[in-house]
Amino acid sequence: MRSNRSSPVHVIIQPRRSHVAGGGNGNGNGNGNGNGNGNGNGNNIEVSSSEAIMPEADGRNIACPLSLGRDLLCEDYSAIHLQLLYRVEDRLGSDAQQFMPRGRELFARCVREAFTAAYLMDALVAAAAAHKSTTGTAAAPGEGEEQAAAAIFFYQAEATRLLTRSLAKFNAQDEITEDRAVAAFLYTMLLGQLVLFDMFSRGGDSAGVLDRFVHCVKLHHGIRNVVAPVWHRVRPVLGLGPGGGCHLAEWVSDGVPHKGGPASECAPLWQLLGRGDVSSSSRRAYSSAVEALQMMFDRTRGWPTNRMAAVQEWLVRVPVDFVDLIAQRRPEALVILAYYAVLLHRARGFWAVAGSGRFLIQSITGYLGEYWSQWLEWPNEVLQQASHQH
Predict the structure, then answer these.
(1) How far apart are CA 112 and CA 304, in angstroms?
(2) Cys staple from 42: which of 22, 24, 231, 313, with CB 3.0 to 4.6 Å?
(3) In this model, does residue 255 exceed pLDDT 90?
(4) d(Cα 244, Cα 247) in Å, to the nearest integer?
C-alpha cells in the first residue's frame, strides 16, 4: 500500500451548459444588469472567432489567440509545476510505453494539447506529481526518511489539489466542441488513471477501497459518455483506426465480448454462475462483466502493451447493475472482481496501479473466507507465481 493521502476527490463528469452573456443579464463582478464592470448598461465586447480579449495588468485589453488557451493566462503555475511538466515526456511517456499502445506518443500529444485547455494542463501536472511520489525520487538525494515522507506527501497532496482544480474547469465547460475533442479524450484518460491511483494510495481497509472502487467504475462510465459524441474527431487524430493494435478505441464502442473456451481464464467464473442460487437479473449482470473480462484477458495475452488500456476498458464495459452488486458485497461479484485484480496485478509496473491487484485479491480472499476459497484459487495462484519469480 502507498502512504496515506488527503481527503478523497469526488468526481462528476458532466459538462454543464450555461448561457453566454447577452445584453441585459450580466456576469463577472457586475451588479444589476451590467456586464463585467457592473455599469448596468449591458454592453458586451465582441471579438472575432480567432481571438479573445484579455485584461492586462495595467487595465488595457489585449487580444489572445484562442489556440493558446486563454484560460491558462489566469492560472498559477510555479517552477515546481514546470519541472513536473518536463517530467511528463521524460518519464511518464517512457513508462507508459510498456503498458499502453503508443504510450509515449499519447503523453507527447497530452503536452501539446495541454496548452489549449487548462483542465488538461492541471491533470497532466497532477499525473506527473502523483508519478513522482511513487518513484522514490520525491526527496533530494541524501535526505532522511522523514524528509522523504514529507516530500511524498507534498506531491500526493499537490496531485489531489490540481486534480480537483481540473475537475472544476472541466465541469464548467459549456460543451465539448470538436476542436477540443482530443484534449477532452486525453483528459478523461488521465483522469481515470489519477482516480485509480487515488483509490488505492490513501490506504484504509478493504471496505473503504471497495467503496472507492464503485466510485471509480462510475467515473469510467462517465468517461465513455463524455467521449462518445466527439469520438469521430478523436479517432483519426490519434491514429486509433481498426487493426492499429490500440484498444483505447473500444472505450466507446461495443466490441465483441464472448465466453471464451473451457481453458480460458474465466472458465471457473462460468461454472460459478451456473449454480442455481443466482437470480436471473444478477446472472445477466455477472455474465456481461465476465464476458468483458474475458475480452480483456484475450487482448492482453501476448500483448503486454495493452495491459493498462485493458484495466481501464473493463471499468467502462461492466454494467451498472454489476457495480451495484459490488456495493452490496455480493460474493459472486467479489469473486469476479478478484479475477479483474489479476489484470491489475499484471500491470503493477504502471505507476497508477502498483500493488493494487495483490491488495484486492488478498482482501477479497480474507473477506469471503474458506467457503468461497475454491473460486479464488486461480487469482491466488497468480500471486504465488509472481512471488516465486522474484
Answers:
(1) 27
(2) 24
(3) no
(4) 8
